[in-house]
């Protein structure tokens, strides 16, 4: 792990996070920063399959950057795409580092809406279709399992 790669990932993270969210038609809303590396989006929203969702999203930037640096560059991206990146972070140029973060965020957001929708449907079924608060809370602290973005419900946090 190199300090230069970490510094660049931390520097570019806010821009890339918002860009990746908007690329997938999410509306991040206002952010509350508990620290430079821990953010809370109380009204992160999107429209999917004729349904509007509002999600409380917690983002642990430090944990995400640490995970990226703990894996080979380009580990978190859509399968089948050859990024042709150097094999070590210390060999990466600024543009390569930014690409690694972009592909990881893009991949995570790709699965986010379907996972939230699925879990909301399950929660509705468990409640027997009784109206109530079905807001979801998500803790984004890992890229390792993008198919399950640590989705929880407000009553379970």
Secondary structure elements and their pairing?
Blueprint lengths: L2 H21 L2 E2 L4 E4 L2 E11 L2 E10 H10 L23 H33 L9 E5 L10 E3 L4
Parallel strand pairs: 4-5
Antiparallel strand pairs: 1-3, 2-3, 3-4, 5-6
Helix pairs in contact: 1-2, 1-3
Summarize the structure.
It is built from 3 helices and 6 strands, in the order αββββααββ.
H-E string: HEEEEHHEE
Distance between the termini: 33 Å
Number of domains: 1
Structural class: alpha+beta
What percentage of residues falls in helices of 4 or more residues? Answer: 40-55%
Strand content bin:
15-25%
Put simply, the count of helices is: 3
In terms of quaternary structure, the protein is single chain
Low-confidence segments: none
- What does the overall shape look like? globular
Number of strands: 6
Biggest sheet record:
6 strands, mixed
Average the pLDDT over all residues and give the rounded result.
Answer: 83
Radius of gyration: 16 Å
What does this protein look like?
By secondary structure, this protein is of the alpha+beta class. It has helices at 3-23, 61-70, 94-126; strands at residues 26-27, 32-35, 38-48, 51-60, 136-140, 151-153. The protein has one domain (3-156). It contains three helices and six strands. Strands 1, 2, 3, 4, 5 and 6 form a six-stranded mixed β-sheet that branches. A hairpin with a 2-residue loop joins strand 2 (32-35) and strand 3 (38-48). Helix 1 packs across helix 3 (94-126). The longest helix is centred in the last third of the chain and has 33 residues, at 94-126. The protein is globular, with a radius of gyration of 16 Å.
């Amino acid at each position: 792990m190199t300090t230069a790669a970490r510094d660049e990932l931390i520097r570019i993270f806010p821009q890339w996070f918002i860009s990746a969210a908007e690329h997938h038609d999410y509306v991040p809303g206002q952010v509350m920063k508990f620290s430079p590396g821990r953010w809370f989006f109380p009204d992160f929203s999107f429209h999917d399959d004729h349904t509007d969702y509002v999600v409380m999203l917690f983002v642990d930037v430090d944990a995400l950057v640490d995970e990226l640096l703990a894996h080979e560059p380009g580990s978190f991206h859509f399968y089948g795409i050859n990024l042709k990146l150097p094999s070590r972070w210390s060999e990466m140029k600024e543009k390569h580092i930014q690409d690694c973060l972009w592909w990881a965020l893009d991949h995570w957001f790709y699965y986010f809406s379907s996972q939230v929708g699925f879990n909301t449907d399950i929660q509705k079924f468990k409640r027997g279709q009784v109206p109530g608060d079905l807001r979801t809370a998500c803790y984004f602290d890992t890229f390792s399992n993008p198919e399950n973005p640590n989705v929880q419900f407000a009553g379970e946090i």
